[in-house]
Each structure stands twice: as structure tokens, then as C-alpha cells.
TrEMBL record:
InterPro entries referenced in this protein's UniProt entry, alphabetically: Flavodoxin/NO_synth (IPR008254), Flavoprotein-like_sf (IPR029039), Flavoprotein_WrbA-like (IPR010089), FMN_Rdtase-like_dom (IPR005025)
Taxonomic classification: Eukaryota, Viridiplantae, Streptophyta, Embryophyta, Tracheophyta
EC class (word): oxidoreductase
Gene3D superfamilies: 3.40.50.360
Cofactor: FMN
Name under which the protein is recorded: NAD(P)H dehydrogenase (quinone)
Lineage: superkingdom: Eukaryota
Family indicated by similarity: Belongs to the WrbA family.
EC number(s) per entry: 1.6.5.2
Length: 203
């Protein structure tokens, strides 16, 4: 039976969505894994999003809390807001109280990826503060550590990401994930899939 991995994200300007797509490619490269992309619901009105210059959402399906119980592992992605996950993703997590009450997600592995505007904008704190959501559900945080190899030590080029997970810098919104950042995202998907298979195999 295939290991089900859900990549769940919120993306206002498309940067996190781009990482999610690459993470899916990496996860799909592992045999015996079934991967699906999901978006969390938007909480802002269209009028507000329009004033913020946000592009239309993609056709990736919107997840509901009940969908989570079907998966064996999760990769959660979001942009930062003052060093923490965006409110849209937090609102979704706040809606998972029923799953928390029954601990249906306990023991399942989860990873994190993210986007920030600048180098001091929360590349590590965004992931660090998000771990509390996993802890209360009894989930097991799976960081990438330094498994990405030499790419983790790149200092000549601006590069998002950290041992916590893949990341990118959005800047003023015009900067897109670089080849190196996308490579790290692909690696995270592949690495996480391998870990998720080990969990499922020993269950």
C-alpha cells in the first residue's frame, strides 16, 4: 500500500506554491509514495487581495481538516508574517481541534517549508514557531538537517532555507525561487518521502 503524503500550503504571491511544486517532484521520485498538493482556505476577501496585488489562486484543491486523517505524512508550507506562519495557515490549524481531541495525527511525520521577504525575515523562526502546532497534535517533526550537502553551505549566493526545511526569499515579490532553492525543495520532498516510508513500514 502506497504511503500517502500531503503537501499543504498557503501562498499569497506564488513563492510557496512554487516550492510546493518542486517538493512534490522530489517526493514523487520515491517509489511507493502517493503525493497530493493541497491549499488551505483563504481568509481575506477578494477586494483586499486585489488591493494587495495578489494573483488569482491556482486550481490546487482546498483542504479540510477531515482530509488530514487520510494521510501518512505532511509537508506544510507558508510565508512568514513577522517571523511566524501566515494567519491563513494558522486559521486552518486552529480548525483541527477535532483531530487534536482524538489525536488522529499523533505519530505521523511532518516537515515544514517557507518563504520570507528578507534574510532577517524569519527563515528559521517561522519554522521554529510552527513546530508548536505539530507538538500539540503529537506529530513528529522531520527537518532536513544538513542532508542537502554542499548546498547548505552556500554563502556566495543569496539562498533561502535552513536545516528546518526548504525556503526562499520573495523580496518585494518579484524575486522567484532560485535553482539552488528549488534543488533544496526537491531534496526535501525526496528525503521526507524516504522517512515517511520508514514510519509506515514499521507501523
Amino acid at each position: 500500500m502506497a504511503v500517502k503524503i500531503y503537501i499543504i500550503y498557503y501562498s499569497m504571491y506564488g513563492h510557496v506554491a512554487r516550492l510546493a511544486e518542486e517538493i512534490k517532484k522530489g517526493a514523487d521520485s520515491v517509489e511507493g509514495v502517493e503525493v497530493k498538493l493541497w491549499q488551505v482556505p483563504e481568509t481575506l476577501p477578494e477586494e483586499v487581495l486585489g488591493k494587495m496585488g495578489a494573483p488569482p489562486k491556482s486550481d490546487v484543491p482546498i483542504i479540510t481538516p477531515s482530509d488530514l486523517a487520510e494521510a501518512d505524512g505532511f509537508l506544510l508550507g507558508f510565508p512568514t508574517r513577522f517571523g511566524m506562519m501566515a494567519a491563513q495557515f494558522k486559521a486552518f490549524m486552529d480548525s483541527t481541534g477535532g483531530l487534536w481531541g482524538t489525536q488522529q495525527l499523533a505519530g505521523k511525520p511532518a516537515g515544514i517549508f517557507y518563504s520570507t521577504a528578507s534574510q532577517g525575515g524569519g527563515q528559521e523562526t517561522t519554522a521554529l514557531t510552527a513546530i508548536t502546532q505539530l507538538v500539540h497534535h503529537g506529530m513528529i517533526f522531520v527537518p532536513i538537517g544538513y542532508t542537502f550537502g554542499a548546498g547548505m553551505f552556500e554563502i556566495e549566493k543569496v539562498k533561502g532555507g535552513s536545516p528546518y526545511g526548504a525556503g526562499t526569499y520573495a523580496g518585494d515579490g518579484t524575486r522567484q525561487p532560485t535553482e539552488l532553492e528549488l534543488g533544496q525543495a526537491f531534496h526535501q520532498g525526496r528525503y521526507f518521502s524516504g522517512i515517511a516510508k520508514k514510519f509506515k513500514g514499521t507501523a
